[in-house]
């Protein structure tokens, strides 16, 4: 057991304190309505939105998983964090205003209002499966892995402990309890993560953190490459095999291409993330909170990647015996050996805080989708508000238990963070297509959206078999192009109604006011926006594959990307179909943002330009 004395006391006090705080929040303001339980009464201030976004996002897969990838791959894995800062700004400016305008509870609910109930139901099932079998289970596994190393207990005990800890405030208090405990936990998370990074970087720099960082850059320069080449490789710690770094993080795809699909789906369409913004007091308050979260994302690689690189340096350059059987054990090893007494307990508390808040967020969102999109729609449409809250609590409990049962099955995985990204990528291109075209393509039909959603997984699996060496980020870009083409073509051949053909009572609420066409965002601007999405994913990937051929990937893949990109761009600009009656009316004023938000966006872009200009 590596936690002793004062560390055990600090850790124990923290755990008990957070549980009591969560229970107090849950009981202070009773969750009598669905809005109370699932959206915290839409009352969150900006700092709670931003803090909860980060606490929900940063969990074991980042602190443990990204440090594991940092140990084997290097700083390039930080692109997931750095590019997320830009994505957050885009989501806040272009996607969030549409969601808040429609006053939705869940992402599937939006899909029904834009398309139909079938699309909503299919996506509800997809998301519940993803949350329970991928997200909750992996976070529980990684958290239990750290507990196993630091406390010397069996993995199942760690899983049970995390389940009980998360359940205390996620099941009974709803989103309000989750968010307010998140605010506490994000402070501990940032402080504890910084302490761990400070400890090992001080060792590398012989007492000076900044010297430690410069030493790492000088001694292991390969681990500070931000954009890999096809020839770059790494050694799998678990198996000793030499594998392709480029296949996991394919060069410029981290700036243009599939990375945009990963981040936009995660931050813009992922229920357990976007739910925090939906619960804000107002749109400006939500946007301010998201900008705050974007700034925090820029700092996270300091403790989520650099410690893993430092562990690699100590092992390969200093001859330190590193007791690591797999990459994801790097951070627990650092915590056990390079964080001093007292701080070790605080940092371990931060790790559990991150795990607990993420699990709570996922559980709350899974229960929200089940209750709002399945129970209310099919099982008991007339259920009372209190009954909905009760069902949400039951669904949350079941989600936790199933995720706990699945967690031990991940014991054979290497870099679990990469596993999460790849398997989420089986559905994210199709889902993102349906959302983006649902918002900004006025001619899209429900049948086209349903086909795109259903084909996403089979197409991903088919191309994984057909072109096995194609990096999964590139495969996501390919599926996005195919999905975009299908969305336009199938909308052209499926029946649709104009608003003149639909009875007033059957029109969606946002269409009933009949905003004059001249007052809406022009069709040409909408087409330009869709074209830009195709260019930064498909065209950029085609150019990169031409300049950086991937070993094992056939040459015709370049022509496939280029051809599909041209086809989709042509379809976007030549499409002359009539609007679907459920097309969303978008007024220019909806996308106007305040000066503070605009300044924050510019500063974030400048910081990222400096980082990539210096390291890439």
UniProtKB/TrEMBL annotation:
Location, primary (coarse class): membrane
Gene Ontology cellular-component annotations: plasma membrane
Top-level lineage group: Bacteria
Keywords: Membrane, Transmembrane, Transmembrane helix
Segments passing through the bilayer: 6-26, 46-65, 77-100, 121-143, 155-175, 182-201, 248-268, 289-314, 348-370, 390-411, 423-441, 448-467, 473-493, 529-547, 553-574, 595-615
GO MF annotation: an example: D-glucose:sodium symporter activity
The keyword Membrane appears for this protein: yes
InterPro entries linked: Na/Glc_symporter_sf, Na/solute_symporter
Protein's cellular compartments: Membrane
Membrane topology value: Multi-pass membrane protein
Family from the record: Belongs to the sodium:solute symporter (SSF) (TC 2.A.21) family.
Name recorded for this polypeptide: Sodium/solute symporter
Organism: Neolewinella lacunae
The organism's taxonomic lineage, starting at the top: Bacteria, Pseudomonadati, Bacteroidota, Saprospiria, Saprospirales
């Amino acid at each position: 057991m590596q936690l002793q004395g004062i560390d055990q006391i600090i850790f124990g006090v923290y755990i008990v304190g957070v549980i009591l705080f969560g229970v107090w929040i849950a009981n202070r303001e009773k969750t009598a309505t669905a809005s109370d339980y699932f959206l915290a009464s839409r009352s969150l201030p900006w700092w709670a939105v931003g803090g909860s976004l980060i606490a929900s996002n940063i969990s074991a897969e980042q602190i443990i998983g990204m440090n594991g990838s940092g140990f084997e791959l290097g700083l390039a894995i930080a692109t997931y964090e750095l590019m997320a800062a830009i994505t957050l700004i885009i989501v806040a400016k272009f996607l969030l205003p549409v969601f808040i305008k429609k006053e939705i509870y869940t992402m599937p609910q939006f899909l029904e209002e834009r398309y139909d109930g079938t699309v909503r139901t299919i996506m509800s099932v997809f998301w519940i499966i993803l949350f329970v079998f991928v997200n909750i289970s992996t976070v529980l596994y990684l958290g239990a892995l750290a507990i196993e190393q630091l406390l010397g207990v069996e993995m199942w005990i760690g899983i049970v402990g995390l389940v009980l800890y998360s359940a205390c405030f996620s099941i009974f208090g709803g989103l309000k309890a989750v968010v307010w405990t998140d605010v506490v936990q994000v402070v501990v998370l940032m402080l504890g993560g910084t302490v761990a990074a400070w400890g090992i970087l001080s060792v590398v720099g012989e007492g000076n953190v900044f010297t430690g960082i410069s030493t790492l850059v000088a001694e292991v320069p390969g681990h500070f490459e931000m954009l890999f080449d096809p020839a770059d490789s790494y050694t799998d710690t678990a198996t000793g095999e030499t594998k392709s770094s480029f296949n996991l993080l394919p060069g410029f795809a981290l700036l243009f291409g599939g990375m945009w699909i990963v981040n936009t789906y995660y931050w813009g369409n992922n229920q357990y993330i976007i739910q925090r913004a939906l619960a804000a007091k107002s749109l400006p308050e939500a946007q301010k909170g998201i900008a705050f979260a974007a700034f925090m994302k820029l700092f996270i690689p300091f403790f989520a990647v650099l410690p893993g690189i430092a562990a690699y340096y100590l092992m390969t350059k200093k001859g330190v015996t590193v007791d690591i059987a797999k990459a994801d054990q790097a951070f627990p090893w650092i915590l056990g050996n390079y964080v001093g007494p007292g701080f070790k307990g605080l940092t371990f508390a931060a790790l559990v805080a991150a795990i607990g808040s993420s699990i709570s967020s996922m559980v709350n969102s899974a229960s929200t989708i089940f209750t709002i999109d399945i129970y209310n729609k099919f099982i008991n449409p007339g259920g009372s508000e209190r009954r909905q809250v009760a069902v949400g609590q039951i669904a949350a409990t079941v989600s936790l238990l199933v995720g706990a049962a699945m967690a031990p099955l991940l014991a054979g995985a290497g870099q679990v963070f990469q596993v999460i990204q790849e398997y989420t990528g089986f559905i994210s291109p199709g889902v993102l297509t349906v959302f983006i075209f649902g918002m900004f393509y006025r001619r899209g039909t429900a049948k086209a959206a349903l086909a795109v959603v259903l084909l996403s997984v089979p197409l991903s699996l088919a191309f994984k078999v057909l072109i096995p060496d194609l990096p999964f980020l590139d495969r996501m870009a390919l599926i996005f192009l195919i999905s975009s083409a299908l969305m336009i073509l199938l909308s052209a051949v499926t029946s649709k109604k104009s608003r003149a053909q639909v009875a007033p009572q059957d029109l969606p609420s946002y269409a009933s006011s009949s905003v004059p066409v001249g007052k809406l965002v022009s069709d040409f601007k909408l087409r330009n926006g869709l074209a830009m999405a195709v260019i930064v994913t498909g065209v950029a990937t085609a150019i990169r594959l031409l300049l950086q051929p991937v070993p094992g990937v056939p040459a015709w893949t370049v022509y496939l990307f280029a051809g599909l990109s041209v086809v989709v761009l042509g379809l976007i600009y030549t499409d002359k179909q009539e609007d679907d009656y459920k097309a969303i009316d978008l007024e220019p004023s909806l996308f106007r943002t305040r000066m503070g938000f605009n300044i924050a966006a510019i500063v974030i872009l400048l910081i990222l330009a400096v980082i990539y200009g210096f390291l890439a």
